[in-house]
Predict the structure.
Amino acid sequence: MSLAASVAVARGPMTVGLDVAVADGEVLAVLGPNGAGKSTLLRVLAGLLRPDDGRVVVGTDVWVDVAAGVHLPAHERRLGMVFQDHLLFPHLSVTDNVAFGLRTRGVRRGPARAAAREWLARVGVADLADRRPGQLSGGQAQRAALARALVGDPALLLLDEPLSALDARTRLTVRAELRRHLADYGGSTVLVTHDPVDAMALADRVVVVEEGRVVQAGTPADVSRHPRTDYVARLVGLALLPGTGEGGTVRLEGGGRVAVAEQTAGPVFVAVRPESVALYPSRPDGSPRNVWPARLVAATPHGSTVRCELAGEVPLIADVTATAFAELGLAPGTPVWASVKASEVAVYDR
Amino acid sequence: MSLAASVAVARGPMTVGLDVAVADGEVLAVLGPNGAGKSTLLRVLAGLLRPDDGRVVVGTDVWVDVAAGVHLPAHERRLGMVFQDHLLFPHLSVTDNVAFGLRTRGVRRGPARAAAREWLARVGVADLADRRPGQLSGGQAQRAALARALVGDPALLLLDEPLSALDARTRLTVRAELRRHLADYGGSTVLVTHDPVDAMALADRVVVVEEGRVVQAGTPADVSRHPRTDYVARLVGLALLPGTGEGGTVRLEGGGRVAVAEQTAGPVFVAVRPESVALYPSRPDGSPRNVWPARLVAATPHGSTVRCELAGEVPLIADVTATAFAELGLAPGTPVWASVKASEVAVYDR
Amino acid sequence: MRGRREAGVPAPLLVPALLAVAFLVLPLLGLLVRAPWSELWPQLSSPAVGQALRLSLVSATAATLVSVVLGVPLAWVLARSRIRGRSVLRALVTVPLVLPPVVGGVALFLVLGRQGLVGAWLDEAFGLTIPFTTTAVVIAETFVAMPFLVISVEGALRAADARFEDAAATLGADRWTTFRRVTLPLVAPGVAAGAVLCWARALGEFGATITFAGNFPGTTQTMPLAVYLALQRDPQAAVVLSLVLLAVSLATLLLLRDRWLSRAGAAA
Amino acid sequence: MRGRREAGVPAPLLVPALLAVAFLVLPLLGLLVRAPWSELWPQLSSPAVGQALRLSLVSATAATLVSVVLGVPLAWVLARSRIRGRSVLRALVTVPLVLPPVVGGVALFLVLGRQGLVGAWLDEAFGLTIPFTTTAVVIAETFVAMPFLVISVEGALRAADARFEDAAATLGADRWTTFRRVTLPLVAPGVAAGAVLCWARALGEFGATITFAGNFPGTTQTMPLAVYLALQRDPQAAVVLSLVLLAVSLATLLLLRDRWLSRAGAAA
Amino acid sequence: GGDDGAAAPGGATSSAPDDGPSGTLTVFAAASLTDVFTDLGGRLEGQHPGLDVQFNFAGSSALATQVVQGAPADVFASAAEPQMATVTDAGLAAGEPAVVAANVLQIAVPAGNPAGVTGLADFAREELALAVCAPEVPCGAASEEVFAAAGVAAVPDTQEEDVRAALTKVELGEVDAALVYTTDVASAGDAVEGLDFPESAEAVNAYPIATLTGAPNPDAAAAFVELVLSEEGRAALSGAGFRVP
Ligand SMILES: Nc1ncnc2c1ncn2[C@@H]1O[C@H](COP(=O)(O)OP(=O)(O)OP(=O)(O)O)[C@@H](O)[C@H]1O
Ligand SMILES: Nc1ncnc2c1ncn2[C@@H]1O[C@H](COP(=O)(O)OP(=O)(O)OP(=O)(O)O)[C@@H](O)[C@H]1O
Ligand SMILES: [Mg+2]
Ligand SMILES: [Mg+2]
């Protein structure tokens, strides 16, 4: 069922005030830095935290309406929820943990256990069905928690980083399993994640939350192509430079100018892909119109390339091959020249 | 100080039997699927779990020697440890949590708190210093736990997925901070992680653990170039095909043949990078000597490319651009032809 | 190189713990040593002693059951609900602990006696009189012992991690289901401890019982009453009787607690 | 559309909880209603009552302190250490709960009396005699009340999450430091509950006290003893005295517990 | 603490200037003697300004235990002979105990006697709620004797551990009649009425008193026993409902 929530809740010095809407069968990914308020949002949607203000409507049911004094208790909300720290019941076997929701909703023990075992098999922990949660590894526990949330027929799925503890391979298969399940699932899903790949793979829409506010919303492709904040840009691996369009160039807010391929005017964002940035030990000649002096601040190997963070008038990220990195003799502090072709620079309105 | 451990411990039906050695100042990354025994290893090294057999030697001190009945209690081991589920003390402020280790080792309250605050600043949670752990978000708690492990001067650092709950941007800065710290740090570090980037960025050496055994060890570059198990290959994004060298071709164990650029003989691994795999709707003509029919089983968008899992005589992974993916009209189940140039295929002894 | 085994009990804990054990166990040893063992057989073979022992065990167990059934919910209300006046209620519940048991017996008369608030009505409506019956013994013991259960279970509930109850709520469990299926198993060791306290206190109850239930062999004479009366005439016999009571309760505790605790432990 | 507020207390918990409250509080109300209030002022203004009340509070508090200092370590040993015979020890510690207090007083004589195991030596070596002194009151109360603390703290310790103790060990804390800085704060609500039980039981102690410490106004006559004497003479006055004791302990519990619990609660 | 000396043997020195007893006198007495002895103790203190009389009132058997355990008592007054026998058997009584008072049984009924009890025969009525003392305690033993003498097959609902407990039930109207001592009825006030019955003479309960061999303050002990046995003491006792020999 569709979800429409607009809630405000004070958390320490910060106020989390978020508007989200999720259609029937849609998956909404919530991205954002640590402490942005993602888990807080899920707790409010689950009924575990009373918002100070706002409404939560699922389908035609009003779950929360602070003004009208309505607050449906959590257990009447038909939820499936994965908590960031699992919270598997320590006194029940893994099977009974997964069967718990079915049992409370009236399913008899036999069928509930059977359904639980089926879900455990789907997330790849069938052989651990009789263990206690204390006897599971971190990733195994997370998978059991996911199974517990998915079994049954919730109206709303709330998944708080459900794949964070999984190893890379299991993550692929569990993500695929989850994707398959969500494709058939008729309710709304809110998925909190730090992994842009999860968002891309699973979500129909993305909202980015920072400091308790929605700063960007859209399809995964849209958000990753046109990030509106530095956080999102970093997340999808772009350098984001706000500036003002002045025809064929953009005057950056931090100083400096960038030549672009289009004509622009007014406040714009300039986004530069790390692959498109070339580094030179001395000022290069040639076609690229954008050439800036910079200094290497950090370098992280990443597969066969090295991701270089550059500081200077125009802060950039550059991906260079490990060979090139070695040949340039780069080390933190080294001065370099960075260049980008104007045609490789994306520019869009702020 | 250097660490040499060779321990065996039964965990449910499985036995974890691991040999690891870490030199002074070295960082060893432990990679492996869920339930492989990584956390178990750390618990044994920390003295929280008694091994059934084996020895642990740090520097010249014998911490564990089961045969001789030696088992140094955890609190005498000079450790810094991050637990997979943080375990911050709920009754102490974040500062006091971080200062705890210093206080127990005799540092006075003032200096201990000052050191704690400094570390909290280094991991970016200085403003939360006076909160209780229950008032932190997941990622904030993980950073506090990291600070608690790093403060002081442990002989051995044991980090169990210390960055898993961090958002992508924070992860970069905390990882850089950790890297800086580990570069100066004289003790041994054992880092458990699921993220190959962490391993590449932080570790001097990598061991891969599967089902309680070490299946591969080496430098990060070595392991990522020459994976020896399917798990590692997936981790670093390669398709791994074991076979037997027969001159210019390799006969694969699963059936089928691969043409390679070198002459080989005997048991070998063939590794194929996803980028080097091209897909065609019908059998292509031309130079590549390796052309196989296959079927698409799963596709995951990943930045501007789509990662395709292929099943067939030769199971492969292919990265194609989103545009190409759309043009090929690919969907799970679609039959395709995959081709790889012989010169792009890596081959090395098993 | 230090090669010693894992430190056992640290001295600052061991020393007071040993003192505590000495303090609690030495007097018992003293009793054991000085007890006139020749009295044992005559006492044990006396049917009155058997009767009193049986009545004690039955009524203490019944009082514990009633206390668990009524007291655990009360502890939950005190620990979890947000009703007003909780702290007053908590203190009120603690207060019967302080009441001299004899006065407690008088108070029970005022409510359940022939002329008591409820008792008079029971008498008229159903011809039921409670005082001087085995029921009265159970009631007196429950009145005295239940607060021990309530307070210790409440402490266990406060210490338990309430986030598991959140998780249960998201799985559709209402508060009652959550209580039964999550909270109660999680605090099982606390309930076990409370029940042991309650049972032991009920088994040792004297003042309220003799006041409210009187002392009639076979109906209301529990062991402590028998011991007290024996003390009047033959202190030696009284010591032997107490030791019999001790031995029986020790055996029961050893059997029951280990069984219950190991179950509760497996659940934790 | 259901718009009602969060469910309060579920009926299957509320009904037994209400029954429990009625059962525990109604008799007190009965006492309050029937109490001869005209007696209140004469009793309150009598210096003997003031003395007894003061002695009761002082000795119960002292007994609680001793019990906490000795009993919490013992509870820790029972819950955490792996010494042998733990279950026997636990049962032994529970047993004084079952001992009729008067017999407990006799047992104390056997150890600490002038002719007792330890008492004789104390007398010879230091000229110290314990019986019939205020110290004897504290000892008698501690003997009777400490097991309540031990058992309920042990329950709390068992229910607490031992993984935090692992974390403390990796931070260099030995078991003693871990106990002080991690375990104890985590089980603070359990210790508070145990201390309340212990204090209340000590405050209400009668049998062991009158036997081992005697009944000397000003030195060993606590309120329950004063109530006992009053019962011999003037039952009405006894009821009033009990109510005074109740009121004082109620006030103390309300003050202390709320203060302690809110601190402990902030720590949780 | 300093006030511990009140009961400690060391406090009982007789170094006062006048010849009479001085220091601390410690009297262990049955709880039923509380009022009379407190009163007499006050009088003795009035006669001897240097004297401080301390009482320890409790059940006779508890007192006997304490004395046997070496309590620093000067005088022991028991509510029955068996407990005094415990002390004399241990060789702790100085001389023969003297009988200070005696008590006989009375039927106690709630004010107004709602059940219409008239005599000992009513203790055989099943429909009444009846209390007697347990046979282990003196008044219970006495009750058995009077029932035997009267030929009544008593059907009590409860055998009380002491007279007080029985009397409490009468006061509350929870029993229709109880067999208790005269003195207790006298002290109970208006809520209880006492009915004499002829067979009561069959069982007279004596209160023995003795000074103790280990008495820290034997002079004062002797003075107190003398006062209790004097005309003045007898008057006080009979005023409280005791029979005096
Ligand atoms: N109980 C609490 N009291 C006060 N502040 C809190 C409490 N819980 C969380 N906070 C604060 O509220 C903010 C939002 O927390 P929340 O858990 O929603 O973050 P999050 O987006 O889920 O972060 P993460 O990615 O680290 O899990 C954080 O700054 C956190 O410190
Ligand atoms: N207390 C226990 N009793 C029995 N088996 C256990 C216990 N704890 C863990 N195991 C099992 O031991 C194996 C190793 O667990 P461990 O926690 O070391 O895995 P891990 O490599 O850390 O996995 P993850 O990446 O999921 O954290 C797992 O299969 C797990 O199920
Ligand atoms: Mg979160
Ligand atoms: Mg792990």
User: Anything to note?
Assistant: Confidence is low (pLDDT under 50) at residues 1-17 of chain E. The pocket of magnesium ion (ligand 4) is lined by residues A 137-138; B 38-39, 84, 160 (CB under 6 Å). The beta strands of chain E are 23-30, 51-58, 75-77, 93-103, 105-110, 130-133, 158-160, 177-181, 192-195, 205-212.
